[in-house]
Structures are given as structure tokens and as C-alpha cells.
Amino acid sequence: MATRKTRVAVIGGGCAAMALAWQLSRRELQDRYEVTIYQEGWRLGGKGASGRGPSGRIEEHGLHIWLGFYDNAFRMMRECHAELESAGKGALYGDWREAWTPENDIALCSPREGGGFEKWAVHMPPRDGLPGDPLPPDVVFTLPYYMARAFELFRALIMDTSRDGATVLSGFERPPEGDVVARLAYLARLGTFAGAATLAEGLGVLAALLRSVTPQGADGLMRAADGLLGRLRQWVEDRWIANDPNRFMWEVADLTLATITGLMRYGVMADPRGLDAIDDYECREWMRINGASVRALQSPFLRGLYDLSMGYENGDPDRPALSAGQGLRGTLRTFFGYRGAFMWRMRAGMGDVVFAPLYTAMKARGVKFEFFHRLTNMGLASSKDHIDTLTFDVQAKIKRGREYDPLVPVHGKPCWPSEPDYDQLLQGSRMRAQGWNFESHWDRRRAEEETLRVGKDFDFVALTVGVGAVPHVASELLAHDKRWRDMCANVASVASQAFQVWLTEDLETLGWPGPTYITGAFAKPFDTWCDMAHVVPEEVWSEPPATAVYFCAVLPDPPEPPSDDDIGYLQRRTDEVRENAANYLEGPIRAVWPGAFEADGNFRWEILKAADDGTSGADLTGPARFATQFWKANVNPSDRYVIHTPGSWRHRISPLDRSYDNLTLAGDWTDSGFHSGCVEGAVMSGLLAAHALCGSPRLEDITAYDHP
């Protein structure tokens, strides 16, 4: 007799859910698990969802760029593309290297004395390998490894700026490489000298020793280097930070030096907690304690770090909050863990590039998808040790009892639309006429209610909604379990805002010289933006625009949260984002796009390209023309961006936690080993949830899960 499969109900359809379902539906596990993904609305993706609007325009939740250290996420997508290719579906999505393009250019903006901004452009060198490749044997994610890389960077900077070539290291008689004691004494003696050559020599010795030292011996090594580090700090401050035209790089060096000093002072390299040992400190506070200069603490790099992580409590730019441990972990992985390229751009929307291929491949594997299912309650059994029921609002029923077909073809590729296909829905015409919003937390209209029962309809539950939605779907768990209440109270999230414009002139014409930088640390309220000209060919235009530009940032919360029955809340916040965006084009953008303004100082609204498929107001002029563009307020509880505030790490619950017999959780808000609101953190969490259920993948196969 065949063994009945374990029925797994996955709640939510973001990156964590996809990673979990991808793992459980592998060929070697398909006879053990039956996976069903329950998704509110008509599309997968969570915070990464995108859709196709008028003229096939790509409409995103925000600006999505994959970083070069996203090994687990890229591995999943590479496997997906390979599987589609082997199944004869490779032409649908192409090779993964066609779906992502390398990006090594970034720009950060710094306020200029007297007004405006100056641009600090950085080109990160390409590195060997590709994200998702097996790790080389010499790459180990330890703090001594990172420190060695940092000292090599310092040494290269000093060698370059001194411009003395090989002669800068002449005159030093080094002890033999195998004599560690002699080299430590030599290192300490170098700290009594102050020249650039001495610094370069000392940093080379220090990097070599760190590569072979154990974490337990690293603190002793750093104490031996104390004099050298002091000299290095003075050299950086006196010679470079004050007035060098490349002081941005030296501000980064100053922050790195403060980091090294702090790791030594706090004994972090020998602490079994790793960087969690300093995670109760706020990142800027910890840098200041360890000697970072005021200028460095205000540098565009550090502001960019907060902007990238949306690290502002309640979305308030005047309340920056990022824990020191995760701030450093993210920085170390970003700068020293990338492969191939520093960043990778998707050729189209994240829905098209990530969630459409995964949906297609997993449908072929037998994974089931139940769209228009919004979870309203996870019922806890009377024994309080497992989930007994799952109650859903079924937002819409599909005609003739069929499965909903969510994708539409664009240039021959399956894509997610920005609106549901009402023609597939029972009473779809009425829903469209009445403006039902299936993705609004505050629109509670439904077709019916459905309750699933353990043992009859499901065996195991994986909760992968955003942490902001947990109180709304797991109230019984929160009432029973203090850990869950503490998690929801202390793992913070912020709302975000985004807008996109399509322009008839490219940015170089408007005064922003290339390359097409990813730009951060710019003016509020939209501090991060990017030229996305590369996605325009994927859209459907009669006369294509010259480029598209995406903007995003945090969106401040109101003093009091809205009630669940405030059906107009989402629209009010969306109108607020529209006003913010239009004002931004009339104000701060002048500093970087001077050619977008008339001689009288007014923004040239005619450069905004309207959809040319007859669906929007191409004849609108002046500020009213902004209505033809796209903007979004990400305020739904599940759409809020997770931030990592000081001390919050101890309140995160791991997907490996088995306090409840048939429940795991996954998302970038869990204890995943990388506590950041990003794709990689979510995928790692999904893999951990799969391991909790079936033992696969092995923990050692989750790249950087054991990161300090």
C-alpha cells in the first residue's frame, strides 16, 4: 500500500515560500510531500511582486537589485532555469545569465557646501566565479578572513596613494614566514613608526597572519597590532579625510578601521556568539565608541547603508536604527562575499524574472497554487501543541471550478499582470465595477469563508507571511505564547514608498552622466534611485521611451495605526506617495537632472512618457501629466519592510523551532542566520524551514548559515 503524502500548507507566496516549496518538491521528495501554496490576490511575490500595466510597463513594489553574495537565492534560480531547459521550456525564460546582468557601478551622493549634491562614483572590480557556484576551498566566512581582506584593502590604498611603487617596502628585513612569534614581535615594532611604507608593510604582515590564525588566537594578534592601528588611524585622519578629493574612500577606510578596533576591543573574534555579541548596539553608536570620525559617521557610505536597509524606526528619517552586528554582517558579506559582480540587475520585473519561472517549474512538479486565499486565523488545538485549523477568506471563486491561470504573455514570455483577470472570476464584472482590491488588507470583501482541518485537509503548516501580518492571522498563538508576542512587538518593520517614471530623454541628456548608476544616499524622501533603461525593451511600446527611472525609500507611519475596517487607508497613503513624488521631481531632482527644468525653473512635465496603448491620458500637460506614471504605497502589513534594530535578534524565532508539532515559519523576519530584509535572508529562512520538515538541505549546504 502506498504511503500517504504529508500535506504541507504554505501560507504566502514570497521568496521564503518559494524556497521552501522548491526544496520540498524536488524529485527525490515528491513521493513524500504534497505542497499547496495559499496566496491572497492573483500573484506571487510578496514584497517582490511586480506586474505588467499599460503598454506592458513593468510596475514594481520598489527597486529590486540582487547583490553578488546572494548565493542561496541564485543557486535556486540557476536550478530552476536548468530544470526548465531540460523540460523543453528553456525558450520561455532563457538562460539565467540572460535574466540577470552584472552591475559594478554605484553612486552615492553627499551634500555639497553651499547646497546641492556631489556624486561619489565607485566601480567595484569584478570577481572570479558566479553567485551560486560552490565556494572555493580558501573562502571561509570567519572574522579573521574578513579582517585579512580588509587589511589587504588598506595596504592597496596606501601603496596606491603613496605612488612609490615597489620601493615603498624596501629596507625591511622580514622574519621567516613560519616563525609566528618573530613575526608578531616584528608587527608590534612596526607600530612605533609612522611612515606610509611602514604602514603598508605592517598591514601586509597582519593580513598574512590573520589568514592562518584561529578565531581564538585572533584577539592576541590584534593586540600585537594595536600600535600599528593607532598609526594608521592618525595617518588616515591627518592626510586624507580632511581635504583629499577622494576622501569618500578614506571615510570608508575610517569606518573599517573603527570596525577592526571594535572587534578587537570587544573580543568578538573569539566570542562564540560572533557578531551577535555586539548586536545590542546601534551601528553608528558602536562606530563612534570605537573611534570613527564625525565626518565618517556622516559619510554617504554610512547613510547609504541605512537607506539600503531602510533602517529608520517607523519610517522616520530622523530616527536611524540599525544593529551593529547585522550592519557589519551585511557590509562584510556585501563587500567581501560577492562573486562575478557586486550587484546583479534583473532584465525585467522581479515577478517576471523570479516568480514566473518558479511558478512554471513548480506547477510542472505538481505543486498546487490556491490564489485569492487570505488567511484570517490559524486555530490552535486545545492541547496547545499544534495547529488544528486554517481559516481563509476566499476572495474570489473561479468560474466552472477551474484553477486560476495567473500569467499573461509579453513578448512571448509568461508574466504577471498588474490586475487580476476578472473574466476568470465568478461575478468578476461586478468586482471590477465595485473596485475590489484583493491586495488591500483593509478591503475585507470576500466570496466565502473556508476552514481547513488538520488530518483532513493538511498535516503541516509553513507560515511565510510578512511579520506585520502575523498578529492578524495568528492571534491565538500570540495570546498563548509570549515568545510570539515578543517577536511581533520587537521585530520592527517599516512602510515604503516607490514611484517610476518613463522619460523621453535619457539621463545623460538631462545632466546626469553615465554609466547607469544605482544611486543611494540622495535627498529625502526618495533617497535611492536607479536608471532602468535596460528594462524598456522588455515592455510593449509603439514608440519606446528613452529610459525608465525607479525611486524608493521609507514611508513614515502615521501617529496611530489604522483600524482594520478603514477601507480608505490604502488610497490615502497612495495619494500621499503621489504628492511626494511629484514634489520630488519639482525639487531635489534638479540637483542631478538640471536639463529636466525650463529656464524659468519649472520641471519639464512633457518629458514624462505616457503609455501609448490608448489606456492613459497622453494629452495631459503640466503637473497633471504625472498621473500617467506609476507610484505605490507599500503599507499592507505583509508588504512592510523588515528592519533589524538593536537587540531585536533575540526575539526572532528560528524556522528550526519545533515548539508546535506541525508548524514552522519562514521569512526575512525569522532567525535565519542573516537578519536583513532581503531576498537572500528570506531564501535562507525558507531552506531552514524545509530542513525542519524533511532534513534537506543539510545545514552546511546553506551558504553562510554558519556566518559569525
Structure description:
- This protein is of the alpha+beta class.
- The protein has 21 helices and 23 strands.
- A hairpin with a 5-residue loop joins strand 7 (105-111) and strand 8.
- Helix 1 (15-24) packs parallel to helix 21 and helix 2 crosses helix 15 (350-365).
- The longest helix has 20 residues, at 143-162.
- The radius of gyration is 26 Å and the shape is globular.
- Residues 159-172 and 189-194 have low confidence and may be disordered.
Quick overview of this protein structure:
This protein is of the alpha+beta class and 708 residues long.
Low-confidence stretches: 159-172, 189-194
| Rg for CA atoms | 26 Å
Distance between the termini: 47 Å
Shape descriptor:
globular
Structural class given helices, strands, pairing?
A: alpha+beta
Average pLDDT figure: 89
Count of helix runs? 21
Estimate percent helicity: 25-40%
Assembly form of the protein: single chain
Strand content: 15-25%
Strand tally is 23
What can be said about the biggest beta sheet?
8 strands, mixed
